[in-house]
Amino acid sequence: MNLAYRRWQYWLPRPLFSLFLALLWLLMVNEFSAAHALLGLALGVAIPFVTHGFWPEEAKIKRPLPLVRYLLVLLVDILRSNLVVALRILRPARYLKPGFFSYPLALDDDFAITILASTISLTPGTVSIHYDAEANTLLVHALHLENEAGMVADIRERYEKPLEEIFR
Amino acid sequence: MTSIDMPWYLELVIVAFLLFGALVALIGSWGLAKLPDFYTRLHGPTKASTLGVGCTLIGSLLYFSHQQDGVSVQEALVTIFLFATAPVSAHMMGKAALRRRLKGIQGTRNMPDR
């Protein structure tokens, strides 16, 4: 505990995140110059240093390649989900059968669960509403719920298994 | 603003993206107005708006990448921020609705009773 400030981790708790912030800054100002690079780096060091007390344990991305594939699948699914929801909106409301179902999680990493919940919200007709930390389930609202077990199996196969692979 | 001349096919692509984005956003807003209960209305902002804004941004990206030198990347940032924040706000609103025990429409399956 003493001399903690001597270790570089004390000053730079999230090196990758710092780099990401610096890059983000450069992209946001949309020009590259030494001054902006320095400012970006300064922000990249300062922001994690001030906020890292609020962050959960850092998740380790073990395999970047499945992550890329996951993002591509997600992009296609966002497109599909938009069209599906648009069609459902245009049809008369009496055809809608909304419903809730709870999804039993196999993941146990906070960050991975966050990503899964966001994915569920961005993909066809489902929004994650509540995370039950004790039972480790997600409560999901579906715009059109016909086959509960099928939906759970879908989410498991399409999103949770790849996520497990990425963060394992 | 003076604009650099564009080839017609690029104009066509940009117009197509803008129109499609606008159409999807319109459908999303229509859904917000006509869907029967709070929980179904939650689906509007997370879905239709992401595609609507996404298409508009692709149009903008193409346009400004052509007008200025280099690729304009700010649109990509807007998209990333949108995709990262929309599900979170939907989640929080849904949670708040559950806490307040808002009723779903008749026929909602497995309505949680908490």
UniProtKB/TrEMBL annotation, chain A:
Is Plastid found in the keyword set? no
Q: Which GO terms describe its molecular function?
A: monoatomic cation transmembrane transporter activity
Which Gene Ontology cellular component terms are annotated?
plasma membrane
Please state where this protein is localized: Cell membrane
The lineage's top-level taxon is Bacteria
| Listed InterPro entries | Cation_antiport_E (IPR002758)
- Presence of the UniProt keyword Transmembrane in the record: yes
Q: Name one Pfam family in it.
A: MNHE
Transmembrane ranges? 68-90
Q: Which UniProt keywords apply?
A: Cell membrane, Membrane, Transmembrane, Transmembrane helix
Topology with respect to the bilayer:
Multi-pass membrane protein
Q: What family, per the record?
A: Belongs to the CPA3 antiporters (TC 2.A.63) subunit E family.
Q: What is this protein called?
A: Na+/H+ antiporter subunit E
Specify the species: Vreelandella zhuhanensis
